[in-house]
Amino acid sequence: MKIVALAGSIVGSKTKTAISKVVDMLHEKYPEHEVTLLDLADYNMAFSDGRNYFEYEGDTKYVAETIMAADALIIGTPTFQASIPATLKNIFDLLPVNAFRDKTVSTIVTAGTSKHYLMVEQQLKPILAYMKAHIVPTYVFLEEKDFLRKEIINDDVLFRLQRLVEDTVMVADAFAEIRAKKDAEYGF
């Protein structure tokens, strides 16, 4: 299985810290899976201009094609102005409407305050549903108080991240099995 862990911002450290922890957990628990970390801070992304994702060049093409080739995604995003950052929205705009069809997607959200916990329910999940994702229902929300010196210090958060990793792989496996049974019905 190909799993992409996406750090959806080019600034700050909390989202990258959380998504890096998830990548470590994936490598430890599921070494048989191919895990790719895409930290948008490491890439020079073009703004979406309506072209097909495979018509872009350089970093933009690489990031879009890597996401499209994934079986599962774990998206990490900070909360900016009670919304997702423009860098993450640009990723969604670069991809086709059905980009997440047959893909399992889970989310990790960081914010400075607990007041932004509904952003994922009101903004991110509707976008993922529109793009046909199999959304893992639970998500992990981290606040400023969960970090110290670019480390997660809340054991409950670490437990929830581990559970999110397990749920993501389990849901992706379940949908792959369902797809295989459905494809077998056709007999060709």
From TrEMBL:
One of its GO terms (molecular function) is FMN reductase (NADPH) activity. Transmembrane segments: none annotated. Keywords: Flavoprotein, FMN, Oxidoreductase. InterPro entries: Flavoprotein-like_sf (IPR029039), FMN_Rdtase-like_dom (IPR005025), NAD(P)H-dep_FMN_reductase (IPR051814). Gene3D superfamilies: 3.40.50.360. The keyword Flavoprotein applies. Its EC number is 1.5.1.38. Residues 1-143 form the NADPH-dependent FMN reductase-like domain. The keyword 4Fe-4S does not apply. PANTHER family: FMN REDUCTASE (NADPH). This is FMN reductase. The lineage of its organism: Bacteria, Bacillati, Bacillota, Bacilli, Bacillales.
